[in-house]
Amino acid sequence: MFIKIIDSVTKASFFVASLALALIVIIFCMEIIMRYFFAAPTSWGPDTVTFLFCASLMLAMPEVTRENSHIAVSIILDFSPHSFAQKFKLVLYAVSFCVVSYVFYVSMIEFVRLFETGINTLGSFRVPKWIVFGFIPFGLGLSAIQFVVLIKKQLSENLVYKKGA
C-alpha cells in the first residue's frame, strides 16, 4: 500500500513536471514571437522559464529514479556475473540513497531558512525564493524514498535468485 501511494505521488509529480515543460516551450515560443515580430519582449518570460525549469527538473527526478532510467555507466554490471551484479546494484542504490538523503537534508535546512527570512528572487518580478526552492527538497525527498523502494525490490530479486540457484 505504501509503495502504491509513493508511486502515485511520483507519477503525479511527473505529470506536473511535464506541464511545466510544456509551459516552458509555450513561453519560449511566445517570447520569440514578441521579440522578433513585435519588438516587444516580455519582462517576465525569462524569469518564469527559469522557475519552471527548476520545477520541471526536480518534479521529474523521482519518476526517473522509480523507473531506474537515469544515465548510468553500467559496464561493471554488464560484464559481471549475475550474482555480483545484483549485489553491486544493491550497493549502488544504498550509496545513492545516502547521497540523495543528505542533499535533501541540506536543501530542507535552506528551504526553512528561506521561508523564515522571506527572501525574494531578483529579476523583473519578485517571488519568495522558498516557493521556487521548495521543489528541490520535494524532488530529493521523493527520490530518496524511491531509492528505498528500489533497495527493497533489489533485495527481493536477490532472494528469488538465491532460491532459484
TrEMBL record:
Keywords, comma-separated and alphabetical: Cell inner membrane, Cell membrane, Membrane, Transmembrane, Transmembrane helix, Transport
Ranges for domain Tripartite ATP-independent periplasmic transporters DctQ component: 24-154
Compartments in which it is found: Cell inner membrane
Transmembrane segments: 12-38, 90-110, 130-151
Membrane topology: Multi-pass membrane protein
Self-association state and partner proteins as the record states: The complex comprises the extracytoplasmic solute receptor protein and the two transmembrane proteins.
Family statement: Belongs to the TRAP transporter small permease family.
Protein role: Part of the tripartite ATP-independent periplasmic (TRAP) transport system.
Identification of the protein by name: TRAP transporter small permease protein
